[in-house]
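Ligand-bound model needed. guanosine-5'-triphosphate.
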Amino acid sequence: MLVEKKAQAQLPTEYGIFEIMVFEELANGKEHVAMIMGYIGDGEKVLSRIHSECLTGDVFHSLKCDCGFQLQTALANIAQEGRGVLIYHRAEGRGIGLTNKIKAYALQDQGLDTVEANEALGFPPDMRDYNCCAEIFEILGVKSIELMTNNPEKLETMRKDGINVVARRPLVVGKNKYNEDYLRIKTEKMDHLFTSADLDGKNLALSFDNECGNDKHLHLDHQGEIKDKE
Ligand SMILES: Nc1nc2c(ncn2[C@@H]2O[C@H](COP(=O)(O)OP(=O)(O)OP(=O)(O)O)[C@@H](O)[C@H]2O)c(=O)[nH]1
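Prediction:
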């Protein structure tokens, strides 16, 4: 047994009413979350997402990654179907944690890509494992899933752990000028399932307007002083 269910309640959201459940991972005390909508019933063909925690993207709407956009789109897709499960997997920074992810961002500011930055800090490119997510599906009575992801490892782990993946639904959203390299590196070095049309922005279900927001943004110089950037 990898996880234990700790709490459950209703959670009204802007996408509709979910049932929220908290599962503790026994090996490390991490609190993973399942957001469930509708009646799981026979547990077959449940629209699902395993979303890895990204404080910067999910909460602060960072444009350096696609995480926040994927989270919103996954919840919206589940609401549209009226049935589904989103597991919020507490594996911040692909498992290296928030402090190390921000250290990696600092290295990326100096020109390293996401994989190189992890390696420079002494970590593999990706430290996640998804076994506890498969067990959460099992506890929920989910037998087969349509998984919203571009990451082949999530598909493989679910299959190995006995959760039948009947389909993959690509989740290509939120490309913008700040995350172009991040997305490209996912295809080139991490085997993620983007097409060249995705990377050109042609297949985006929800494209992000490059020119939106205030481009006369503030930036920090090397001393940490905030300056206007023209
Ligand atoms: N180490 C590190 N983690 C990052 C970086 N940018 C985002 N993340 C984390 O990456 C995780 C999301 O992984 P992704 O590779 O974007 O996507 P995925 O979950 O593998 O695949 P999808 O299911 O297609 O979203 C989250 O935990 C983020 O916090 C980065 O530059 N470095």
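DSSP finds eight helices and nine strands in the chain.
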